[in-house]
Amino acid sequence: MAERSVSVQGSANQSIIITGDHNQVGGAAQFRIPLVRHHAPARRRRGPQTPPNVLDILSAHNKALSLQGREPELTILNEWLSDDTDISVFAITASAGSGKTRLAIELCEQAELQTGWAAGFVRSDDLEQLAHAFKFAQANWSHSLLLVVDYAGANAQALAQWLDALSQLDDLADGIRVRILLLEREASKEAGWWHTLTGSALGSDQARLDLFTRFEPYALTGLSDIAVRRAVLCAALNAVQALVPYPQVSAIPEAGEQPDFDTALADPQFGNPLALVMAGILCRDMSPRAALSLHYLAAAEKLAQREIDRFYKCFGEGADATKLAHCLCFHLLCGGLRIADMRQTLSAELVAMGWHSPGLDKELQALKQAFPPAEGGDETARLSTTQPDLIAEAMCIQLLQSDEELSLKAADILARVLKYGQDQAAATLVRLLQDFACPVSQPTAQLLKWAEQLVENNQHNRELIELLNGAMPLSSIALAEVACKLATLRYQQEQTKAESQLSEADLARLAMSLNNLAVRQSDLGQREVALASATEAVEHYSALAENRPDAFLPDLAVSLNTLATLQSSLGQHEAAHTSALEAVEHFRILAKARPDIFLPALAGSLNNLANRQSKLGQYEAAYTSALEAVELRRALAQARPDAFLPDLAGSLSNLANLQSALGQHEAAHTPALEAVELQRALAQAHPDAFLPDFAMSLNNLANLQSALGQHEAAHTSALEVFEHFRILAKARPGAFLPDLAGSLNNLANRQSKLGQHEAAHESTLEAVEYYRALAQARPEAFSPYLATSLNNLANLQSALGQHEAAHTSALEAVELRRALAQARPDAFLPDLAMSLNNLANRQSALGQHEAAYTSALEAVELRRALAQARPDAFLPDLAGSLNNLANRQSELGQHEAAHISALEAVELQRALAQARPDAFLPDLASSLNNLADIQSDLGQCEVALLSSKEAVQLLSPYFIKWPEAYKSWMGIVLGNYLRYCKAAEQEPDSELVDPIIEKLNELEQE
């Protein structure tokens, strides 16, 4: 690994020399900041006693394999290099092993092939000096620079200082460019390192934000092309066989040669280049099919154990194995020991572990031989570490678990590691937890226990809590509880500080910690406390924005969106609408002044507002908001499709749902289909990133196809959704099991529409089993979904004649929702009313007419109260419950009361249909048909005939237009009309009836 220095004063390809005494340029002090040039030929430092190492193939720094499948990204990055802007920052995010470091190395190599460019990686330890150097130097470069910062999240503060210094430099000489490429796993505008750099003007001015070429990182996704995957796999196998010849030579099957191998290669996990290379290496020792059968974490564990064994064999001669193992583990956990203090550090660590006066000569020698430092490093230089990170992490886990005493002391060891390694160690630890604390990994429970104990033991250690909280991923199923605990402690720290000082900066940090805490609490289903946190965050940001709107309006708008989402989840739909509307108003002002920065946020807020308006039954207003979001995102996507096509697809799907709610099913089909087509292309290219969103859009399309009577197409779409979520849930059950259960519910509805009641019953039963397991673990989050599935199951059991079982399922749904509604009436009273309606039908089927009447009456009373408060949202439901109540009253012989209920239902539906005919005319037809039956029971044959005829007249246009959707319904309504004609001794209206009968006959023949 060769190095080069860059110069601010002098020759850029020789050294960066900053002179000055911190007050003026020109003093005698000099220092240099080296660039690590992974793209330059590396000098081998392996001794003759050291055998070849297969990890040389895995490490991106060694360039053992050519870069494949990244041509589009390289094109984008080279265009960024050649842009006219003098100083520009670009960020890339990607999961572990996605190849972001390898891509950056390739870009450095291509940059230095151009005349006048120097390129390389900036070490974390040098960033603070670099920031200081640029602050006091004059910009007088003779070369353009590409500077790469890996693990940007662990260096956010130093990066902020550096970028602030760069933003204050004078214009560079013509043709000179400075490009800074930031690499990290994830980023968020709401919190964390990206928010520190771009999300708030606090502590910086607009000049720093102007350095960024885009206001969200470029998401590097997996390799979707199966041919590229096969090529990477072959290259890895060829490299390991060349490095360490093996008696039995393996070969990767050609495409089509082994269908089961091709299926395994298409698994989403192998979109990750590191997973492919690890599998390729293991193909040397096992069959290619067997290598692909391993989960990539299991493959990493195998390779980690081999590396531990190799380390002992090559470097452990004469050393105490237990002591050496602990030194190795500490070194890897802290992200690399500093050479200057490694003896002192390890000595203190071994004493803390119980060794007395430990000798360290052989252990230090072993570490230096195994992990030589970068060339030219000064006293701050660190030993190198095992690459890639995933293997180093697996080594740490195995070393800590290798001894019971070590495992028991793991939390204390980790605390000392963090105290020593600071940001770098915190980032290393959190990466380890992210990668291995998941359901498919064996050490999950142990890792989480260590993490929880670490936090518990150090809850009063402000520095450690701040370190861990800042390094935590923004979303993680496995780490949700740990992250919430850290966010709580961090908030408590800021609260204490703010109470004593009340400075603007302290209040801003307090508000940020509250918003972050609200998100963490919501992730755990703790919505009430999350709402309180979000409310307080908004209050603080409101006060801050009132004094300095230029600095704090963006943060206020973000926190309002968080608040709106939480208010909606608790049934506070009016309040949620108010919050979402205020967020839109703020972002509209911001976008008018700075459209390049805030138009994307405005579009996102409009989407959020549309959802809130929809919950209030304000479908026209919601449609307007969603349409504006689509228009904004379409314009953004035309300019930058790589960044905004996913957002456009999401908004299109949302727009389609709202058009469908307005009864505009044909119009809704167009955006729904466009959303699916966009996301299908994205998911095919980058399944790791976009497959879940594609599945959700396809789910929405299935519902719309069903509404249009396209039941076969709807079933096909729903089945594909289920298959996608089955794959995703197998790989990541913690994240996708709820989606799998939801897809089963939807598939059951589609199967039921095709008359496949047995298959629908099996699908719903499986969904209930999943939701029951999820609700046992997190009742506050998943009990509502369990109740919905039980409702669906009851309907299907009834359709199969299983009336006792249907009653049991419906009763359990009511009991669940009654308990939920007692705790949170605003959120769950509507669902309780729905379940009571369903229970009444099930009780009626069992002949329990008194009980059925009681359930139906309670449903009407609940919905009447809801409709008085929010008529737009609940009048349609009230009309449906009145119809049901009328039927129950009729069963008890209460025909006059039944007539009153049915008549009220018709009056409500008529008013609704006048306002929105496309949405409510079919429902009015249903109510009229029901009213006709009750009028007939009262002997009002002439009036019943009129009601029935009107029902046929209203429903027939829909049947003619969408025959498949309305066939069954039309048959029932027409049959009643003909029956009443006969009872009244009148001839049916042939002009009305004949086209319907002709169409029904055509459908029957088909």
From TrEMBL:
Coiled coil: none annotated. InterPro entries: P-loop_NTPase (IPR027417), TPR-like_helical_dom_sf (IPR011990), TPR_rpt (IPR019734). Pfam families: TPR_10 (PF13374). Signal peptide: none annotated. SMART domains: TPR (SM00028). This is Tetratricopeptide repeat protein. PANTHER family: FUNGAL LIPASE-LIKE DOMAIN-CONTAINING PROTEIN, KINESIN LIGHT CHAIN.
